[in-house]
Protein backbone atom coordinates (compact mmCIF):
# COMPACT_ATOMS: atom_id res chain seq x y z
CA UNK A 1 0.00 0.00 0.00
CA UNK A 2 1.30 3.45 -0.82
CA UNK A 3 1.97 5.80 2.04
CA UNK A 4 1.87 9.56 2.32
CA UNK A 5 4.05 12.31 3.68
CA UNK A 6 2.79 12.13 7.26
CA UNK A 7 3.95 15.67 7.92
CA UNK A 8 0.89 16.92 6.03
CA UNK A 9 -1.34 15.27 8.64
CA UNK A 10 0.32 17.27 11.39
CA UNK A 11 -1.07 20.50 9.98
CA UNK A 12 -4.22 21.61 11.80
CA UNK A 13 -7.16 22.72 9.65
CA UNK A 14 -6.46 26.27 8.52
CA UNK A 15 -9.09 27.68 10.75
CA UNK A 16 -8.42 31.42 10.75
CA UNK A 17 -10.15 32.69 7.62
CA UNK A 18 -12.89 30.06 7.63
CA UNK A 19 -13.72 30.94 11.24
CA UNK A 20 -13.74 34.67 10.35
CA UNK A 21 -16.14 33.95 7.48
CA UNK A 22 -18.30 31.73 9.71
CA UNK A 23 -18.69 34.41 12.37
CA UNK A 24 -19.47 37.14 9.81
CA UNK A 25 -22.13 34.95 8.18
CA UNK A 26 -23.69 34.02 11.52
CA UNK A 27 -23.84 37.71 12.43
CA UNK A 28 -25.46 38.60 9.11
CA UNK A 29 -28.10 35.90 9.57
CA UNK A 30 -29.25 37.42 12.83
CA UNK A 31 -28.68 41.03 11.69
CA UNK A 32 -29.68 41.08 8.01
CA UNK A 33 -29.85 44.90 7.95
CA UNK A 34 -26.24 45.34 9.13
CA UNK A 35 -23.81 46.61 6.47
CA UNK A 36 -20.58 44.85 7.46
CA UNK A 37 -17.34 46.49 6.26
CA UNK A 38 -14.75 43.80 5.63
CA UNK A 39 -11.31 45.01 6.61
CA UNK A 40 -9.70 41.61 6.85
CA UNK A 41 -8.94 41.37 3.14
CA UNK A 42 -5.35 40.48 2.29
CA UNK A 43 -5.93 40.97 -1.42
CA UNK A 44 -5.65 44.15 -3.47
CA UNK A 45 -8.94 45.75 -4.51
CA UNK A 46 -7.96 48.26 -7.24
CA UNK A 47 -7.82 47.03 -10.86
CA UNK A 48 -4.50 46.51 -12.66
CA UNK A 49 -2.71 49.57 -13.97
CA UNK A 50 -3.29 50.58 -17.60
CA UNK A 51 0.32 50.01 -18.67
CA UNK A 52 0.18 46.35 -17.59
CA UNK A 53 -3.23 45.81 -19.19
CA UNK A 54 -2.07 47.22 -22.54
CA UNK A 55 1.11 45.15 -22.48
CA UNK A 56 -0.85 41.98 -21.72
CA UNK A 57 -3.37 42.67 -24.52
CA UNK A 58 -0.45 43.00 -26.89
CA UNK A 59 1.13 39.81 -25.50
CA UNK A 60 -2.09 37.92 -26.18
CA UNK A 61 -1.96 39.12 -29.79
CA UNK A 62 1.69 37.99 -29.96
CA UNK A 63 0.53 34.50 -29.05
CA UNK A 64 -1.92 34.55 -31.97
CA UNK A 65 0.73 35.09 -34.65
CA UNK A 66 3.23 32.53 -35.88
CA UNK A 67 5.99 35.20 -36.08
CA UNK A 68 5.53 36.45 -32.52
CA UNK A 69 4.26 33.30 -30.82
CA UNK A 70 6.06 32.28 -27.59
CA UNK A 71 5.86 28.71 -26.34
CA UNK A 72 7.93 27.51 -23.42
CA UNK A 73 10.07 30.37 -22.20
CA UNK A 74 13.27 30.26 -20.16
CA UNK A 75 12.58 28.64 -16.76
CA UNK A 76 14.32 31.61 -15.11
CA UNK A 77 12.13 34.19 -16.84
CA UNK A 78 12.50 36.28 -20.01
CA UNK A 79 15.53 38.56 -20.31
CA UNK A 80 13.27 41.56 -20.95
CA UNK A 81 11.84 41.18 -17.44
CA UNK A 82 14.98 40.08 -15.58
CA UNK A 83 16.86 43.04 -17.07
CA UNK A 84 14.12 45.48 -16.05
CA UNK A 85 14.04 44.07 -12.51
CA UNK A 86 17.83 44.28 -12.13
CA UNK A 87 17.88 47.83 -13.47
CA UNK A 88 14.92 49.41 -11.67
CA UNK A 89 14.66 47.45 -8.43
CA UNK A 90 18.41 47.14 -7.78
CA UNK A 91 20.97 48.91 -9.96
CA UNK A 92 19.18 52.27 -9.90
CA UNK A 93 19.29 52.04 -6.11
CA UNK A 94 23.01 51.30 -6.28
CA UNK A 95 22.49 47.65 -5.39
CA UNK A 96 24.65 45.15 -7.17
CA UNK A 97 22.33 42.44 -8.54
CA UNK A 98 22.79 40.84 -11.95
CA UNK A 99 19.88 39.57 -14.09
CA UNK A 100 21.39 36.06 -13.80
CA UNK A 101 20.67 36.21 -10.06
CA UNK A 102 16.95 36.82 -10.65
CA UNK A 103 14.45 33.97 -11.02
CA UNK A 104 11.00 35.01 -12.24
CA UNK A 105 8.12 32.94 -10.92
CA UNK A 106 4.34 32.81 -10.54
CA UNK A 107 4.54 34.54 -7.16
CA UNK A 108 6.24 34.80 -3.81
CA UNK A 109 4.00 32.32 -2.01
CA UNK A 110 5.20 29.44 -4.15
CA UNK A 111 8.83 30.57 -4.01
CA UNK A 112 8.95 31.08 -0.23
CA UNK A 113 7.28 27.70 0.11
CA UNK A 114 9.39 25.88 -2.48
CA UNK A 115 12.77 27.25 -1.48
CA UNK A 116 12.98 24.66 1.28
CA UNK A 117 13.36 22.01 -1.47
CA UNK A 118 17.08 22.80 -1.72
CA UNK A 119 17.66 22.99 2.06
CA UNK A 120 18.28 20.12 4.43
CA UNK A 121 15.44 18.89 6.60
CA UNK A 122 17.83 19.12 9.56
CA UNK A 123 18.07 22.92 9.48
CA UNK A 124 16.72 24.79 12.47
CA UNK A 125 14.16 27.37 11.34
CA UNK A 126 13.36 30.70 12.99
CA UNK A 127 10.36 32.91 12.28
CA UNK A 128 9.22 36.21 13.70
CA UNK A 129 5.99 35.77 15.63
CA UNK A 130 3.27 36.72 14.53
CA UNK A 131 4.07 35.54 11.02
CA UNK A 132 2.81 34.98 7.46
CA UNK A 133 1.64 31.36 7.91
CA UNK A 134 3.24 30.04 4.69
CA UNK A 135 6.74 29.97 6.21
CA UNK A 136 5.66 27.81 9.12
CA UNK A 137 3.27 25.49 7.31
CA UNK A 138 5.69 24.67 4.48
CA UNK A 139 8.33 23.76 7.05
CA UNK A 140 5.79 21.53 8.78
CA UNK A 141 5.23 19.77 5.44
CA UNK A 142 8.98 19.33 4.99
CA UNK A 143 9.39 17.88 8.49
CA UNK A 144 11.39 20.73 10.02
CA UNK A 145 8.80 21.90 12.54
CA UNK A 146 8.50 19.02 15.00
CA UNK A 147 5.26 18.74 16.96
CA UNK A 148 2.53 21.26 17.71
CA UNK A 149 2.07 21.94 21.40
CA UNK A 150 0.03 24.86 22.78
CA UNK A 151 -0.12 26.55 19.39
CA UNK A 152 3.65 26.44 18.75
CA UNK A 153 5.87 23.95 16.86
CA UNK A 154 8.56 22.62 19.16
CA UNK A 155 11.41 22.66 16.63
CA UNK A 156 10.70 26.15 15.31
CA UNK A 157 12.39 29.11 16.97
CA UNK A 158 9.79 31.85 17.50
CA UNK A 159 11.09 35.41 17.67
CA UNK A 160 8.32 37.47 19.32
CA UNK A 161 7.56 40.89 17.89
CA UNK A 162 5.17 42.85 20.07
CA UNK A 163 4.75 46.35 21.47
CA UNK A 164 7.08 45.26 24.31
CA UNK A 165 10.07 45.20 21.93
CA UNK A 166 8.75 47.89 19.54
CA UNK A 167 8.26 45.11 16.98
CA UNK A 168 12.04 44.69 16.61
CA UNK A 169 12.86 40.98 16.89
CA UNK A 170 15.67 40.21 19.36
CA UNK A 171 18.49 37.94 18.20
CA UNK A 172 18.07 34.30 19.27
CA UNK A 173 19.62 33.33 22.59
CA UNK A 174 23.08 31.71 22.45
CA UNK A 175 21.81 28.18 23.10
CA UNK A 176 19.94 27.84 19.78
CA UNK A 177 21.38 29.12 16.52
CA UNK A 178 18.83 28.98 13.71
CA UNK A 179 20.17 27.95 10.30
CA UNK A 180 17.31 29.53 8.37
CA UNK A 181 15.72 32.83 9.40
CA UNK A 182 12.58 34.14 7.74
CA UNK A 183 12.20 37.91 7.81
CA UNK A 184 9.37 39.82 6.14
CA UNK A 185 9.65 43.60 5.88
CA UNK A 186 7.50 45.65 5.56
CA UNK A 187 5.78 43.05 7.70
CA UNK A 188 2.58 41.14 7.20
CA UNK A 189 0.67 41.05 9.57
CA UNK A 190 2.03 43.88 11.79
CA UNK A 191 2.67 46.49 9.08
CA UNK A 192 5.91 47.46 10.85
CA UNK A 193 9.40 47.84 9.36
CA UNK A 194 13.08 47.60 10.33
CA UNK A 195 15.51 50.43 9.70
CA UNK A 196 18.78 49.78 7.85
CA UNK A 197 20.66 49.53 11.16
CA UNK A 198 18.12 47.12 12.63
CA UNK A 199 18.31 44.89 9.57
CA UNK A 200 22.11 45.04 9.63
CA UNK A 201 22.03 43.34 13.05
CA UNK A 202 20.44 40.31 11.36
CA UNK A 203 22.80 40.26 8.39
CA UNK A 204 25.78 40.42 10.77
CA UNK A 205 24.30 37.61 12.86
CA UNK A 206 23.73 35.41 9.80
CA UNK A 207 27.27 36.00 8.52
CA UNK A 208 28.75 35.25 11.92
CA UNK A 209 26.79 32.00 12.37
CA UNK A 210 26.51 30.80 8.78
CA UNK A 211 22.72 31.21 8.78
CA UNK A 212 20.60 31.86 5.72
CA UNK A 213 18.10 34.74 5.75
CA UNK A 214 14.99 34.28 3.61
CA UNK A 215 13.86 37.88 3.17
CA UNK A 216 10.30 38.47 1.94
CA UNK A 217 9.78 42.00 0.65
CA UNK A 218 6.38 41.58 -0.97
CA UNK A 219 5.42 45.05 0.32
CA UNK A 220 8.54 46.91 -0.85
CA UNK A 221 6.58 49.43 -2.94
CA UNK A 222 4.77 50.65 0.18
CA UNK A 223 7.99 51.97 1.73
CA UNK A 224 7.90 55.74 2.14
CA UNK A 225 10.37 56.44 4.97
CA UNK A 226 14.01 57.15 4.12
CA UNK A 227 15.67 54.90 6.69
CA UNK A 228 13.70 51.79 5.69
CA UNK A 229 15.72 49.60 3.30
CA UNK A 230 14.02 48.59 0.03
CA UNK A 231 16.13 45.46 -0.26
CA UNK A 232 18.20 43.40 2.13
CA UNK A 233 21.08 43.81 -0.36
CA UNK A 234 21.38 47.43 0.73
CA UNK A 235 23.12 45.91 3.75
CA UNK A 236 26.80 45.11 3.40
CA UNK A 237 27.42 41.36 3.27
CA UNK A 238 23.80 40.37 2.51
CA UNK A 239 24.85 38.93 -0.85
CA UNK A 240 26.61 36.21 1.14
CA UNK A 241 23.72 35.29 3.47
CA UNK A 242 20.34 36.27 2.03
CA UNK A 243 17.75 35.30 -0.56
CA UNK A 244 15.12 37.93 -1.39
CA UNK A 245 11.54 37.25 -2.49
CA UNK A 246 9.45 39.86 -4.28
CA UNK A 247 6.10 39.88 -5.93
CA UNK A 248 4.06 42.00 -8.32
CA UNK A 249 0.95 41.01 -6.32
CA UNK A 250 0.70 43.81 -3.76
CA UNK A 251 3.06 46.09 -5.70
CA UNK A 252 1.10 46.19 -8.92
CA UNK A 253 -2.15 44.31 -8.33
CA UNK A 254 -0.98 40.98 -9.82
CA UNK A 255 -2.68 38.73 -7.24
CA UNK A 256 -4.83 37.26 -10.01
CA UNK A 257 -2.37 37.54 -12.91
CA UNK A 258 0.51 35.91 -10.96
CA UNK A 259 4.13 37.04 -11.22
CA UNK A 260 6.96 37.41 -8.72
CA UNK A 261 10.65 36.78 -8.47
CA UNK A 262 13.40 35.48 -6.22
CA UNK A 263 16.95 36.81 -6.01
CA UNK A 264 19.69 34.27 -5.29
CA UNK A 265 23.08 36.04 -5.37
CA UNK A 266 26.05 34.13 -6.76
CA UNK A 267 28.03 34.91 -3.61
CA UNK A 268 25.65 32.73 -1.63
CA UNK A 269 27.52 29.48 -1.10
CA UNK A 270 27.53 26.70 1.45
CA UNK A 271 28.89 23.16 1.67
CA UNK A 272 27.22 19.86 0.93
CA UNK A 273 27.45 17.01 3.47
CA UNK A 274 30.85 16.04 2.04
CA UNK A 275 32.27 19.51 2.53
CA UNK A 276 32.19 20.46 -1.16
CA UNK A 277 31.27 24.09 -1.91
CA UNK A 278 27.83 24.52 -3.45
CA UNK A 279 26.26 27.65 -4.97
CA UNK A 280 22.64 28.24 -3.99
CA UNK A 281 22.10 30.04 -7.29
CA UNK A 282 22.99 26.85 -9.24
CA UNK A 283 20.95 24.69 -6.92
CA UNK A 284 17.85 26.87 -7.20
CA UNK A 285 18.36 27.02 -10.97
CA UNK A 286 18.47 23.25 -11.05
CA UNK A 287 15.33 23.00 -8.95
CA UNK A 288 13.41 25.47 -11.12
CA UNK A 289 14.50 23.87 -14.41
CA UNK A 290 13.29 20.50 -13.13
CA UNK A 291 10.03 21.46 -11.44
CA UNK A 292 8.95 24.74 -13.06
CA UNK A 293 8.36 25.77 -16.67
CA UNK A 294 8.38 29.52 -16.21
CA UNK A 295 5.73 32.15 -15.55
CA UNK A 296 3.42 32.85 -18.46
CA UNK A 297 4.71 35.08 -21.27
CA UNK A 298 1.62 37.25 -20.86
CA UNK A 299 2.18 37.83 -17.11
CA UNK A 300 5.84 38.62 -17.70
CA UNK A 301 4.97 41.19 -20.39
CA UNK A 302 2.52 42.74 -17.92
CA UNK A 303 5.14 42.78 -15.17
CA UNK A 304 7.75 44.37 -17.46
CA UNK A 305 5.28 47.18 -18.26
CA UNK A 306 5.19 48.05 -14.55
CA UNK A 307 8.76 49.37 -14.97
CA UNK A 308 7.93 51.79 -17.81
CA UNK A 309 7.52 55.50 -16.94
CA UNK A 310 3.72 55.25 -17.11
CA UNK A 311 3.69 51.92 -15.28
CA UNK A 312 5.72 53.21 -12.37
CA UNK A 313 3.56 56.33 -12.12
CA UNK A 314 0.36 54.28 -12.20
CA UNK A 315 1.37 51.75 -9.56
CA UNK A 316 2.55 54.57 -7.29
CA UNK A 317 -0.93 56.12 -7.54
CA UNK A 318 -2.57 52.84 -6.52
CA UNK A 319 -0.17 52.25 -3.63
CA UNK A 320 -0.64 55.88 -2.50
CA UNK A 321 -4.39 55.25 -2.43
CA UNK A 322 -3.92 52.27 -0.08
CA UNK A 323 -1.45 54.20 2.03
CA UNK A 324 -3.97 57.03 2.42
CA UNK A 325 -6.44 54.44 3.74
CA UNK A 326 -3.76 53.10 6.08
CA UNK A 327 -3.05 56.63 7.38
CA UNK A 328 -6.76 57.29 7.94
CA UNK A 329 -7.02 54.04 9.91
CA UNK A 330 -3.86 54.71 11.92
CA UNK A 331 -4.67 58.33 12.78
CA UNK A 332 -8.40 57.81 13.28
CA UNK A 333 -8.07 54.79 15.55
CA UNK A 334 -5.24 56.40 17.54
CA UNK A 335 -7.47 59.45 18.07
CA UNK A 336 -10.22 57.05 19.21
CA UNK A 337 -7.89 55.91 21.99
CA UNK A 338 -6.58 52.67 20.51
CA UNK A 339 -2.92 51.70 20.38
CA UNK A 340 -2.10 51.33 16.69
CA UNK A 341 1.10 50.17 14.94
CA UNK A 342 2.21 49.87 11.31
CA UNK A 343 0.36 51.46 8.41
CA UNK A 344 3.14 53.90 7.45
CA UNK A 345 5.13 51.75 5.00
CA UNK A 346 2.57 48.96 4.69
CA UNK A 347 -1.12 48.38 3.92
CA UNK A 348 -1.72 46.88 7.38
CA UNK A 349 -2.44 48.41 10.77
CA UNK A 350 -1.93 46.31 13.86
CA UNK A 351 -4.09 47.24 16.81
CA UNK A 352 -3.54 46.36 20.47
CA UNK A 353 -6.88 45.05 21.71
CA UNK A 354 -8.18 47.37 24.44
CA UNK A 355 -8.73 46.21 28.02
CA UNK A 356 -6.69 43.01 27.58
CA UNK A 357 -9.36 41.46 25.42
CA UNK A 358 -8.31 38.40 23.41
CA UNK A 359 -8.05 38.80 19.65
CA UNK A 360 -11.31 36.88 19.11
CA UNK A 361 -13.18 38.83 21.81
CA UNK A 362 -12.20 42.05 20.05
CA UNK A 363 -13.23 40.54 16.70
CA UNK A 364 -16.73 39.82 18.06
CA UNK A 365 -17.03 43.22 19.73
CA UNK A 366 -15.99 45.12 16.59
CA UNK A 367 -18.33 43.06 14.44
CA UNK A 368 -21.33 43.50 16.75
CA UNK A 369 -20.91 47.13 17.77
CA UNK A 370 -19.33 48.62 14.64
CA UNK A 371 -20.13 46.07 11.93
CA UNK A 372 -16.46 46.08 11.00
CA UNK A 373 -14.63 42.78 10.38
CA UNK A 374 -10.87 42.36 10.66
CA UNK A 375 -8.45 39.54 11.41
CA UNK A 376 -7.63 38.31 14.94
CA UNK A 377 -3.89 38.54 15.60
CA UNK A 378 -3.79 35.17 17.36
CA UNK A 379 -4.33 33.54 13.95
CA UNK A 380 -0.80 34.59 12.95
CA UNK A 381 1.03 32.99 15.86
CA UNK A 382 1.22 32.89 19.66
CA UNK A 383 2.54 36.46 19.99
CA UNK A 384 -0.33 37.77 17.86
CA UNK A 385 -2.72 37.18 20.78
CA UNK A 386 -4.05 40.49 22.07
CA UNK A 387 -3.69 42.13 18.65
CA UNK A 388 -5.91 42.70 15.65
CA UNK A 389 -5.19 43.42 11.97
CA UNK A 390 -7.09 45.82 9.71
CA UNK A 391 -6.13 46.24 6.07
CA UNK A 392 -6.05 49.24 3.76
CA UNK A 393 -7.25 47.14 0.82
CA UNK A 394 -10.64 48.77 0.71
CA UNK A 395 -12.26 51.90 -0.68
CA UNK A 396 -11.51 55.29 0.83
CA UNK A 397 -15.24 55.67 1.62
CA UNK A 398 -15.42 52.37 3.51
CA UNK A 399 -12.22 53.18 5.37
CA UNK A 400 -13.58 56.56 6.52
CA UNK A 401 -16.89 54.97 7.50
CA UNK A 402 -15.14 52.20 9.47
CA UNK A 403 -13.11 54.76 11.45
CA UNK A 404 -16.26 56.80 12.10
CA UNK A 405 -18.11 53.76 13.45
CA UNK A 406 -15.22 52.68 15.66
CA UNK A 407 -14.83 56.23 17.00
CA UNK A 408 -18.51 56.70 17.82
CA UNK A 409 -19.70 53.22 18.79
CA UNK A 410 -16.84 51.34 20.42
C1 LIG B 1 0.77 38.60 -0.30
C2 LIG B 1 2.08 38.12 0.19
C3 LIG B 1 2.98 37.51 -0.66
C4 LIG B 1 2.73 37.46 -2.15
O1 LIG B 1 2.30 36.26 -2.59
P1 LIG B 1 2.09 35.99 -4.14
O2 LIG B 1 2.14 34.52 -4.23
O3 LIG B 1 3.22 36.64 -4.88
O4 LIG B 1 0.76 36.58 -4.53
C5 LIG B 1 4.19 37.07 -0.16
N1 LIG B 1 4.51 37.26 1.13
C6 LIG B 1 3.67 37.89 1.96
C7 LIG B 1 4.09 38.13 3.36
C8 LIG B 1 2.42 38.32 1.52
O5 LIG B 1 1.58 38.93 2.37
How is this fold's topology laid out?
Elements: H1 7-10, H2 16-30, E1 37-38, H3 50-63, H4 79-90, E2 102-105, H5 108-114, E3 125-129, H6 133-142, E4 148-149, E5 152-153, E6 157-160, E7 180-184, H7 196-209, E8 212-216, E9 242-247, H8 248-252, E10 260-263, E11 269-271, E12 277-279, H9 280-291, H10 297-305, H11 309-335, E13 339-342, E14 348-352, H12 359-370, E15 372-373, E16 375-376, E17 387-391, H13 396-409
Parallel strand pairs: 1-15, 3-6, 3-7, 7-8, 8-9
Antiparallel strand pairs: 2-10, 4-5, 9-10, 11-12, 13-14, 14-17, 16-17
Helix pairs in contact: 3-10, 4-10, 5-6, 11-13
The structure holds pyridoxal-5'-phosphate.
Residues 107-109, 132, 184, 188, 216, 218, 247, 249-250, 255, 260 line the site of pyridoxal-5'-phosphate.
Describe the model:
The chain folds into two domains: 14-43 and 311-409, Aspartate Aminotransferase, domain 1 (Alpha-Beta Complex); 54-307, 3-Layer(aba) Sandwich (Aspartate Aminotransferase, domain 2), CATH 3.40.640. Helix content is 38%, strand content 15%. The model has no long low-confidence stretch (mean pLDDT 97). By secondary structure, it is α/β, with parallel strands linked by helices. The protein contains 13 helices and 17 strands. The longest helix is centred in the C-terminal third of the chain and has 27 residues, at 309-335. It is globular, with a radius of gyration of 22 Å. The structure holds pyridoxal-5'-phosphate.
Give a quick summary of the entry.
This protein has 410 residues and is an alpha/beta fold.
Keywords:
seven-stranded mixed sheet; Aspartate Aminotransferase, domain 2; 13 helices; Aspartate Aminotransferase, domain 1; binds pyridoxal-5'-phosphate; alpha/beta; four-stranded antiparallel sheet
